[in-house]
Amino acid sequence: MDKKWYEKNGKNGSVVISTRIRLARNLEEFPFPARCSDDLRVRIAEKVKDAVLNSGSVISPRFSCIDVDNIPMGERVSLVERHLVSPEFISAKGTKSLLLLDDESVSIMVNEEDHVRLQVMCEGFDLDRAYEQASRIDTLLDERLKFAFSDTLGYLTQCPTNLGTGMRASVMLHLPALTEAKVMRKMGENLSKLGIAIRGAYGEGSEPVADMYQLSNQITLGISEKTAIENLRSITERLIAQELSYREKLAPRIEIQDKIYRALGILRSARLIDCAEAQKMLSRVRFGITAGLIKDIDLETINRLFVEIQPATLMQSVGKELTASERDALRANVIRNLVERD
Amino acid sequence: MDKKWYEKNGKNGSVVISTRIRLARNLEEFPFPARCSDDLRVRIAEKVKDAVLNSGSVISPRFSCIDVDNIPMGERVSLVERHLVSPEFISAKGTKSLLLLDDESVSIMVNEEDHVRLQVMCEGFDLDRAYEQASRIDTLLDERLKFAFSDTLGYLTQCPTNLGTGMRASVMLHLPALTEAKVMRKMGENLSKLGIAIRGAYGEGSEPVADMYQLSNQITLGISEKTAIENLRSITERLIAQELSYREKLAPRIEIQDKIYRALGILRSARLIDCAEAQKMLSRVRFGITAGLIKDIDLETINRLFVEIQPATLMQSVGKELTASERDALRANVIRNLVERD
């Protein structure tokens, strides 16, 4: 099986962790989810599941269907931690399900805010690849499901903010230098004027953690997918350049090197570490790797740790519930094993 | 030349850093320092200097005389940091001088609170050795200086708290486990009832730093030197046993190991570190060494660093004034070089 996206380091990987395309779609023969009885939701879930698993395409057998309502809470939270579903999806009431590709690069939420939320994720900065994959699956599903579409408005969605393309393109950026330089707030204000939202790693309302930011297009109406993607691409390219120039400026400073090397020292020696501290230290080490200060750890290792040390995903890895301090001890071990000296 | 006391690890060195005997003496033909004109202070300084340097004993040529009033402030502060003089001695007005043995184990302050304050210091727990050395020099000086002595009161001192033996015996203890267990306050109250004072590393009024405590006898009147020493010895032995038993209890705990290994991680990786943080981390590493958790660093190295990373002593080592952040960078380097992995 392929490595998962978060175990790889992609294009412009020093700054861009991942690229995501999300399409919101609804089945024309059913009312929007908010107006659906649970019977209808069950029928929708079955229809979508059938369309995905029996599409006749080579990709179909690689999907599995997860009955999100009937798995332990820990597994559900881990889906959020791995960015496979939205936080709202696992807490909302009513029948819903998830169709997941084996390498976790494609996830299809059924009965989230819309009937279908198709998400394609890939490592690094690769809007084209993510968009092509999303379009391919979108077309495959449309043939069997008939998505609600208006010639004047485009794809119809429950919330008008998604009307039109129904597309949200986003990139997850690691911006330790811009954060250190305290320019992110100003940056966010400017970006919103350009129709780009900047948020924490878990979407709307989430605070930035460990210098990670999600950048996404906001405009879906009166604009083509291509234009929206080009807009996000050019702004991301500019942000990458700015971040790299700040890194070059900051990396030689002893105060910064002190933070970076201490972070590595802590990751290599702690016997207990909570998730927030670990991610903060991983962020500094990641900066140190891209600045050439740390040479014996690779970005793949850090990317993977960012995801795998989260509470629910960590417990998944050992297949049992753990107390907070048991998790802190396990997390410290997992990290130490991966960042050890050569 | 011999190693200095703070570069060695002595008896019961896991808990006892050093042992000190201090004798307060006054010349019978002069008034106490507080009633001395500066002319008299100069004469006293000359007399004591002559007595020390020209005693005819083999030890005499190993002494040098430091004109404390006329050396740079940094050098003066370093004398305090190395426990060779009291903090009051370097700030007080009026002629004073210091006679110092080459290995820094004997220092004689002239015109401190008394005309002569003879101090013998040695590594580890060794009251007998320190007392014998102090007595030998005391006898040598008494022959030439005629110390003020009353058959009923004993040695006469300016402050009545020193009257009698004029002796203060003290041990410097490293008590990380008792500190961690938060029993030191109670311990201090009990000790004072037994005529033993417990203080920070720099004597009266100083707060404990990095789990270091100075234990000393308070009673000098109506008691022999031997009794005072036996009293301090038996209490110190009990404290050593208690500290070691707490260490055994605490060392297996993951919270403690986390603190210890993180401290080592920080000392091995920091590029900037201030004195207080460094001493705190050194204390934890010292605990870790004695608990058998850290095997590739020895106690001598830690003892030495405790003294050498202090601001003034650090600047002495490079022979120039440094700003606080230059010191922090130098300190981090000095430490890193000494605690590196094998």
Folded structure, characterized:
The structure is a homodimer of 342-residue chains. With 342 residues, chain A is of the alpha+beta class. Chain A has helices spanning 38-53, 73-81, 87-91, 127-145, 176-180, 184-193, 225-250, 254-269, 275-290, 299-308, 311-318, 324-339, and strands spanning 16-25, 63-66, 97-101, 106-110, 116-123, 149-150, 154-155, 167-174, 196-199, 212-217. In chain A, the strands form 2 sheets. The first copy, chain A, has an 8-stranded antiparallel β-sheet with strand order 2-3-4-5-1-8-10-9. In chain A, helix 1 (38-53) packs across helix 4 and helix 2 (73-81) packs across helix 11 (311-318). The first copy, chain A, starts with 15 loop residues before the first strand and ends with a helix. The model of chain A has no long low-confidence stretch (mean pLDDT 93). The interface between A and B is medium-sized, with 18 and 17 residues.
Radius of gyration of chain A: 21 Å
CATH architectural designation of the largest domain in chain A: 2-Layer Sandwich
Low-pLDDT runs of 5+ residues of chain A are none
Assembly category:
homodimer
What overall geometry of chain A do the principal axes of the alpha carbons give?
Answer: globular
Which secondary-structure class do the elements of chain A indicate? alpha+beta
Average pLDDT of chain A: 93
Portion of residues in beta strands of chain A equals: 15-25%
How many beta-strand elements of chain A? 10
CATH superfamily of the largest domain in chain A: Glutamine synthetase/guanido kinase, catalytic domain
Count of DSSP H/I helices of chain A: 12
Cα distance spanning the termini of chain A: 28 Å
The proportion of residues forming helix of chain A, as a percent range, comes to: 40-55%
Overall tally of domains of chain A: 2
Report the major sheet of chain A: 8 strands, antiparallel
Please write the string of helix (H) and strand (E) elements of chain A.
EHEHHEEEHEEEHHEEHHHHHH
**Largest chain interface and its two residue counts?**
A-B, 18 and 17 residues
CATH topology of the largest domain in chain A: Creatine Kinase, Chain A, domain 2
Q: Order of strands across the biggest sheet of chain A?
A: 2-3-4-5-1-8-10-9
The top level CATH class name of the largest domain in chain A: Alpha Beta
